[in-house]
Amino acid sequence: MAHPSESPPPSQSAGRRSSDKQREHQANERTYLAWLRTSISLIGFGFAIARFGFFLQQLFRTDSSAVSPFFSSRLIGISLVGFGVFSIILAACRYNLAFTQIDRGLYIRMRCAIWLLSAMVIALGLLCIPLLFKKKQQKAQQHTTKLRPVGT
């Protein structure tokens, strides 16, 4: 029986290293797929926001020039779609970098991508807030114009 302080035979340690690498690569793939799902969600959400804004314009027959171009649902929707595409590119680059680092045994954690994506999602979320208030103001204005008697 081998002493606990002795290292395992070379064949066992090579097998252990191989299975550890396999687990790390599988974790890297799961992480990439999570980023991909998030990116697809951002693209779908952006598309829905842009289309919903167009739907509201048609429903209330509002002039699109009356809406501030900076806080329009179309701009925010397009931004989310662009951000989703950007995150797919970032995820693919990050996956390839981690794959190479795992193979070489020199994995270096990088948090800058997490902070960048978090900041962008926060910024786009904050840009959506004025849209919520603007729709209430527009409904109130349309309601008062419909109640005015003709000729005034």
3D structure, described in words:
With 152 residues, the protein is mostly helical. The chain has one domain (25-134). Helices cover 78% and strands 0% of the residues. The protein has helices spanning 10-60, 73-104, 112-147. The longest helix has 51 residues, at 10-60. It is elongated and about 70 Å long. The model has no long low-confidence stretch (mean pLDDT 78).
How many helices? The count is 3
The domain tally reads: 1
Terminal CA distance: 102 Å
Strand percentage: under 5%
Mean pLDDT over the residues: 78
Compact summary:
With 152 residues, this protein is mainly α. The chain has one domain.
Question: What order do the helices and strands come in, and which of them pair?
Answer:
Blueprint: H1 10-60, H2 73-104, H3 112-147
Helix pairs in contact: 1-2, 2-3
Entry keywords:
152 residues, elongated, 3 helices, 78% helix, mainly alpha
